[in-house]
Amino acid sequence: MMVPRFREIATFMRTPYVEEFSTTDIGLVGVPFDGAVTNRSGTRHGPRQVRDMSSMMRTTHHVSRINPYDNCRICDVGDVPLTTIYDLPTVNDQITSFYQQLVGNSVFPLSIGGDHSITYPILRAVARKDPVGLVHIDAHTDTWNEWMGSNLNHGAPFRRAVEDGLIDPKRTIQIGIRGAQNSPEGWNYSKDSGMRVIFIEEFRELGVEGVLKEIGNVVGAGECYLSFDIDSIDPVYAPGTGTPEIGGLTPFEGQQLIRSLKKMQLVGADLVEVSPPFDQSGNTALVAATLVFEMLCIVAEQISNQ
Amino acid sequence: MMVPRFREIATFMRTPYVEEFSTTDIGLVGVPFDGAVTNRSGTRHGPRQVRDMSSMMRTTHHVSRINPYDNCRICDVGDVPLTTIYDLPTVNDQITSFYQQLVGNSVFPLSIGGDHSITYPILRAVARKDPVGLVHIDAHTDTWNEWMGSNLNHGAPFRRAVEDGLIDPKRTIQIGIRGAQNSPEGWNYSKDSGMRVIFIEEFRELGVEGVLKEIGNVVGAGECYLSFDIDSIDPVYAPGTGTPEIGGLTPFEGQQLIRSLKKMQLVGADLVEVSPPFDQSGNTALVAATLVFEMLCIVAEQISNQ
Amino acid sequence: MMVPRFREIATFMRTPYVEEFSTTDIGLVGVPFDGAVTNRSGTRHGPRQVRDMSSMMRTTHHVSRINPYDNCRICDVGDVPLTTIYDLPTVNDQITSFYQQLVGNSVFPLSIGGDHSITYPILRAVARKDPVGLVHIDAHTDTWNEWMGSNLNHGAPFRRAVEDGLIDPKRTIQIGIRGAQNSPEGWNYSKDSGMRVIFIEEFRELGVEGVLKEIGNVVGAGECYLSFDIDSIDPVYAPGTGTPEIGGLTPFEGQQLIRSLKKMQLVGADLVEVSPPFDQSGNTALVAATLVFEMLCIVAEQISNQ
Amino acid sequence: MMVPRFREIATFMRTPYVEEFSTTDIGLVGVPFDGAVTNRSGTRHGPRQVRDMSSMMRTTHHVSRINPYDNCRICDVGDVPLTTIYDLPTVNDQITSFYQQLVGNSVFPLSIGGDHSITYPILRAVARKDPVGLVHIDAHTDTWNEWMGSNLNHGAPFRRAVEDGLIDPKRTIQIGIRGAQNSPEGWNYSKDSGMRVIFIEEFRELGVEGVLKEIGNVVGAGECYLSFDIDSIDPVYAPGTGTPEIGGLTPFEGQQLIRSLKKMQLVGADLVEVSPPFDQSGNTALVAATLVFEMLCIVAEQISNQ
Amino acid sequence: MMVPRFREIATFMRTPYVEEFSTTDIGLVGVPFDGAVTNRSGTRHGPRQVRDMSSMMRTTHHVSRINPYDNCRICDVGDVPLTTIYDLPTVNDQITSFYQQLVGNSVFPLSIGGDHSITYPILRAVARKDPVGLVHIDAHTDTWNEWMGSNLNHGAPFRRAVEDGLIDPKRTIQIGIRGAQNSPEGWNYSKDSGMRVIFIEEFRELGVEGVLKEIGNVVGAGECYLSFDIDSIDPVYAPGTGTPEIGGLTPFEGQQLIRSLKKMQLVGADLVEVSPPFDQSGNTALVAATLVFEMLCIVAEQISNQ
Amino acid sequence: MMVPRFREIATFMRTPYVEEFSTTDIGLVGVPFDGAVTNRSGTRHGPRQVRDMSSMMRTTHHVSRINPYDNCRICDVGDVPLTTIYDLPTVNDQITSFYQQLVGNSVFPLSIGGDHSITYPILRAVARKDPVGLVHIDAHTDTWNEWMGSNLNHGAPFRRAVEDGLIDPKRTIQIGIRGAQNSPEGWNYSKDSGMRVIFIEEFRELGVEGVLKEIGNVVGAGECYLSFDIDSIDPVYAPGTGTPEIGGLTPFEGQQLIRSLKKMQLVGADLVEVSPPFDQSGNTALVAATLVFEMLCIVAEQISNQ
């Protein structure tokens, strides 16, 4: 990674691309699927663009001075090999199946989407025993129900996950929620199921420090999953996404939130909803790649502490 | 339409928007669906953008001096009201159903896509008796078969249409074909079923005049349908499309081809595959809107001659 | 408004377009005029683009849970039908005349510009009796005088409005002012006439809460008008404007300011200076449409409380 | 001009900027005015952008091997110093006045617009005795009449010029005309007044050679003016313009047309309607700058032959 | 290559990436170096972007029906591993050294630049015995001399190659030359050294067929090299390049030229000067990738015929 | 400067361009050189673009009410006239030589880059006696060492300056540092040499006020230099730069920092790393031009106080 950043093949972070997983600690996975969106598509191109932009990343974190590549074997394990893209239930099954392979090989899955519908089938693979906790950073609760004929749309994954006992709503926190909706139904579902929902107005009142305390209080010890929707970030920083809502987080706040999760028992993490066709300047992908680097650092620290 | 072009609501060509079809001769229909693409999506935004750019159009054709609005009642009949977007067979049925209403009201359907998969369900509505002829201008034959789990993908509509007896392959001409494929199967299907395929190299040899003669020879009298895929045009003029192939037609050639079809017995026409997220300059939509205006002129002439 | 957001005709917020005003409570008006700018033009395209982007909006506010469409009849009343665009005094008269029709029909005018010169002729229609108060959010005081031969330029509307007794400078507050000028004359006029001017530096000291108190103190009860120039927002969020000044408000601050005006006696409101040719990413229009939605919510609440 | 092209102050072609005209043979003039457009504005920024892009130009023509800077004193004489921009008749008078100064100093005016309305006041200065001939390359005849309250709009300059006896319609040729209009009135005026109008379809039939012959036949010997509207070029090459029409000339054809006028008695020339806000890639300005260089070469040759 | 084109790691044409060359017939090489440009830099990003866009390519040529992957082992051999980028002579030596490895392993080098200076060090590796012939498609002859302190700049490679006896000027043809220069010196060098130079005007007269005959006449049998500068293509198709000149070739002409070289004895080929920072739409890279595919087809045919 | 901002020749701030320096107090200098970058080039175009955008600037500061043009003779002194661009040591010498001329004429040099390597040769001219203090605002410490074969790369200028005794590390403060690195070596050098390094996290804790105190404490009285790398600003505001790092300063913070330096003994200042090819919206240049205006105001005040 010491050669100039415009050189070499664009794998995630310019890590080795592997097709066999037995010697990988952290697998960077692409999930180029956007067939479940409700509005603007394009995230099928997300993994490719994040791979490209991730070569801007370097190795040693400026705060923690951690170099995750020192501690862990980190590889690009490629894209989920879907053989269909038009049928949502089958797509979900194929995603789950691929993550079961990763989990079976003790690979920590760090995923780059794709639309948010992918988190549900990922959770089916990583939440193998008890429901896991969830740190969910997003503009939307994604606990809505059927829309345009499918309950597997990208506004619904966490409702499905609760129904299936994959996540524990009482150990779930949703951060950054904002923007009008056509009904309060999803907001109500989150609240009624026991999730802690921090709307952006409360986020501004609590500040990052206060929110981090809430995360600790809600999720606690025990296994948990981190799902970061890039639309939690204000669209000026991350225009490349399908359902932008103004008034969001700054990338710096995103970095701070992730950076502070290093004590959690993560079983997986994802960064979703990067949509390159709406990202003319590439800043969305730059933010995404940097946030993935933050995730790499905390996961590497967690793994090397085990 | 005499007010400045930046003013007023952006219906197609700034025509009246109607929800009831009994007094419409030509219905401009939006089909904002792109769930059947094999590569880059985005054409769900096509009708909206063509509506917007179409306000650049004016009324009197500079060659024929025809003003189609003098002769015909032309309306924007809105978008096909799909209630599902994730299930291809159902989407196809809903499209067919809407066009049956139009045809039942004697409305000539001039459609703006949407991906090319929409032409198959449209043909199911407009080819009510015998198979119709087809003038198909495209970079691809779209006579391929199942891909990624569906045979309703946007590379397959004309194979489906032949199988269902909706088009007569011997009265079908495909113009502008080019670009590598992963197998010659679709090219072979077109040829073996009896279609006349003019690859771009032959197009350059024949010239527009020669191609027009071939159209006449192949399609002849009798009902026919015009399907114009914007990717027939060279991607420099029409970058906003999902599967661009360099070395294509110029917009002027597109105008000449359409302009010369005024003696045909058209039962419907479409302009598909305009994908705004890949059309930063808007030229794709400008070309598309102008080609739709050319279509309007020949259809209006056909109708007023009846 | 429940159908996918890429579908349907792009009226403001996808409300019904009406040409007769008797059954409308709130009229969304387009004023596509930019003939009075001093620097970069382009806002003539503002209403069209805000209409397009406004289809991203939904119905229920995430804080107040208000759905303005439940309480009020909200319509797109089209664009001001100017018959001349080259002569500023005549343009001003035609604008006033159209708003007199709206006001005469008891329609609350919520306008989307257009350059800021339009607020002066709007005020001539809405400030029918006494001078009204003014909440003016902008990077510039717009109290300058003649420039390049006209005192109806877009840097002058509030000076004209004071001279005509349309606004009460003592009940006028200007928020977000910043950026160098070629003379301090406009700043001085605002101050000398009695307006309360909050430059951006003071804004940062007071915070949104402090500014809201000042608004209450200055404007008080009694009729007032809200004029929001998109260039009050930092140009990184709203590059699509004619005279950008760095160091401005965030969209979240804009939302908070508007949201808190719900107790005021508004007689009209506008959002001006959106210039699509300089808004490649569309974020300006997204911010503008969301701010208009915030305005709709407070106006609907005001109307339903009457 | 031998230093790298990204260096130095961006005058036209990096020629010396002069404020006194007595030692200038050819004056490159900017006319940053777009207040007379009927649709999209933006050409006020044209001279600035053409100045910037013109530093890509070099000195020795690859066909004629002429270096115009060897033969002539070529200077950037700045922008027309308008003191008003809102009143069309006054603007016209101020333009005429500035060109009278140039002509009075025996400076050949080569102008960069600005919208096409500027050609009429320029002609008032350069056509001092008899009506001059006109080579007019454009998508539109610009012989329309009053629109939105002014007959000085940018669709009307050549009608005004005929009425004033500034150009001789029988020695006028209009080349590249195309695109629908809301009435045939302008086309008819051109024809009825005796102009030779070559629509794009005839252009394609005649070829450049044939058109050049027609130019010779129509304009003949005697003084003439060259007016080149960038929208004559197909909008894919020149998107940066207000009223694009597909199906236009290529830049190569533009070069050939200009290059062949070297035997004419030119009294002035202009390149108008370059609108940077619609020219994201800068290709419009690159084409424009190169066409201006072609003009410089023929004018320099004409002057050195005198 | 049968999976969707937005998926998988972006090697050139999605071929296997290899670091050992013994089983490779054709090596696709990236040369991300632009330190020798005279104007706008950016081609250091060329290989990365062409890799990305090349996944749009498919396998079977629509004219020849050749699938080069059937006949040859084609691999992405990575980027030239430069250890310095600031010193032109050393960079040149390192490039030569890498190509010597390729040639030593009987790998046919098909290179993607990078600026045109790279062709000289490549020629030092591939022209091992006698001077080779050269088919050079470009807007510029690139036979200029020292500029700004170096004779290894990107305007000079073929002059250096003649001086070193790497190419035979009498078996060299330069095609597509155009655009002004600050002196005729390079043009003269080409002519005086015996090269056949086809300026764009002659190209238009001869047509592609005539030019192909000239190529045959000039280069004949015997080893030769193909160097394709993307700026030979008109900048509207290929804006992403450092020294654009209007009035160039179409991509279709580029395809025809390459396609017809299948009988030549190629020892190497390159496609240079793709500069992504100036290629907002990506069309330059699409053209480049498609031209590289054309090269692959003729090289594969040549190799399988051996 | 009172004419419309789209008019006139684009010198820096539309000041007079001079080639002789004896009557200039503040010289605005362009240094269009980017040959020392480690990643993305493009800043060679920075001075041109800042010149263009700087015509958006006006004269009277809205806080201090200072008009720097009242107090000082401010001129555009052109670009450093390099005669080579490929050899870093020679380039450095030529830069130093030009600044020695300026300093010799008592011209205060306010420079616009260009990559950050230019500050080292500038310091060689302005730090003539003792080492000067340094206020360095940047995302990177730029105290790294040799890279890719040169220790004059743009990541190294302040290490070179310390080694040469041009700056006093104990009177040096680096502000805004952030982002991963491939080793901590540069960070360590800064610290070990005695510089005060304020990483972005500490910046957020101290606030602008606290940082300003630190600047005073560290730099104190005595001569100092101000070097402002635009990449200190968050890339959403300033995407046009070579090595963007998310989580940076806002432009308002940049303004505040500069504005408060008015009591310092500045001997020179620069604004570097503006890279137009990556600045599609132009906001980077707008920020840069406004920051340069802030610099002008404090320097003018310093000079008029002397």
Provide a short characterization of the protein structure.
6 copies of one chain form a homohexamer. With 306 residues, chain A is of the alpha/beta class. Chain A has helices spanning 46-54, 68-71, 88-104, 119-126, 157-163, 185-193, 200-219, 251-259, 283-304; strands at residues 26-31, 74-79, 108-113, 132-137, 167-177, 196-199, 223-229, 265-272.
What does this structure look like?
Six copies of one chain form a homohexamer. Helices cover 34% and strands 18% of the residues of chain A. Chain A is of the alpha/beta class and 306 residues long. The first copy, chain A, has helices at 46-54, 68-71, 88-104, 119-126, 157-163, 185-193, 200-219, 251-259, 283-304, and strands at residues 26-31, 74-79, 108-113, 132-137, 167-177, 196-199, 223-229, 265-272. Chain A has one domain: 3-Layer(aba) Sandwich (Arginase, Chain A), CATH 3.40.800. In chain A, strand 5 (167-177), helix 6 (185-193) and strand 6 (196-199) form a beta-alpha-beta unit. Chain A contains nine helices and eight strands. In chain A, helix 3 packs parallel to helix 4, helix 4 runs parallel beside helix 5 (157-163) and helix 8 (251-259) runs parallel beside helix 9 (283-304). Chain A has an eight-stranded parallel β-sheet with strand order 2-1-3-8-7-4-5-6, with helices on both faces. Chains in contact: A-B, A-C, A-E, A-F, B-C, B-D, B-E, C-D, C-F, D-E, D-F, E-F. The A-C interface holds A 38-40, 148, 177-184, 187, 199-201, 204, 234-236, 239, 243-247, 278, 280-281 and C 1-2, 4-6, 56-63, 65, 236-237, 250-252, 255, 280-283, 286-287, 290, 293.
